[in-house]
Amino acid sequence: MEQHFDQFHEEQYEIMEEQNQTGINNEIAYEELSGDEAMEQSFSVNSQYMGHNRKAKTNLFMTSMIVTKSILGVGILGLPYVTYNFGLLFTIILIIAFYWQTQYCTNMFLQCKNLSKRSNISTIGFSAFKSKSIIVFINLIIIINNFGLCFAEMIIQGTAIQNVVKSLFDANDGEWYTQRQFLSSISGLIMIPMMVIKKIEKLKFAGVTAICAMSLFCISLITSFISTMKNDGLAVGFTILPYDFTFIKAFGAFPTLLLAYNWEFNLFPVAKGMDKPNDKKVMKACSFGMIIATCFYLMVGIMGCAIYGKESQTNFLASVTKEKMGDVQFYLLNGSFYVSTVLTTPLVFFGARNNFLQLIKGEKKNKVKGVNIDSLDEKEVALLKKQKKKRQQSTKYMYYIWSIGLFVIITIGSIYIHSLEIAFNFVGSVSSNSIGCVLPSLFLFMLMKEGYKNKQMTKMESLQESLAKIFFVYSIIMSFVCLTSEILTTIYE
Asked: Which terminus of the chain, N or C, has fewer Cβ atoms within 10 Å?
């Protein structure tokens, strides 16, 4: 690893020199990007979630679908609660605003790519700060983000399976087989074989099946919405303007939107997977994918709140009742989201675990220092082979111990801290906001500062630098306000 950093550091002077002749708005072709493949692969978790073969190039439409798949996730369940807190009008405005914010952040990452000639968040960060610690910091954020998402998905699984079991057996909360401890443990046992898989290719089926389950969830919600409107009309609390607006509660729900649009750590793997990629094609695919995801978000947020109104909760499944939804829709809604989270949790866990293991391993190298095999006798060669085999077995055992241990911790946490508000708020306001907003604006400012030392900026370039600074300050304030609001909401309640 050390040699990759040293080589990278030497290349940076040449890259910055070239920037003086190019600039922020001059695109660097993807095939001309500097390699650092070993370093990128060591730290990268991005492609893990995608579940597609990187050798198979995708067209514009398929890339858009991959973007949509990356964006859609557990955050969708919090949108009816967001709609209740902000009202229909402001929810639509906010979701559209977050769409444009995500577009801008994606564009900033592409500008960072052109300035640094790198196509990985970690290596772009190293270009901006010339420090190895920034790579550790970035991957720590990604680890927190992915483990936080796993935690949220396990909470949702517990709620979904509880709803189904209670309804099927007409049982109350006191029965042992309806307890979250029992049901989440069963779910955990089902997922353990997927959690210890080493190659993401073996989980390809999970991504496709999860998308089908998510689509089934939306279809169930639409049919339930239609039947509810015919029989009961709009729920109390579903209004154009906020029904019962409280600043603290509303901004406590705000991180759900930050979480819902968090996808930027998948940007470069998606771009590299395109057929003949360039920034214009990448932005087109991203825009189309984000539009589809935004339509899903608006649909779920509006319809969910229209059905349940002031009864809407951050975990929408906790609001769902068979009496309101109807038997078929109730089971489909809970069952489809349960299947979706069971299949997507291993994909998210895969990247978080690999990054975690990379961080704790550091720069240790699992190899024997230079030994001339020809100079050894048969006994010494046999001993070396035996030692190598022993190290490989030890590494294998540690891999399984860490994988199962980390997953058990997440499962236990989801059983006893089953508040989705805490998971959404922490992940949304800290890690999702950092990945999507803080890092691209900070990187862009630092790279422009370095790249334009000996070159005068144009008015447009000066404006872009100023916007990056403003956006950085905005994103820091947003994190603080969201976290504070959640803490105050918890104390208030």
From this structure: C
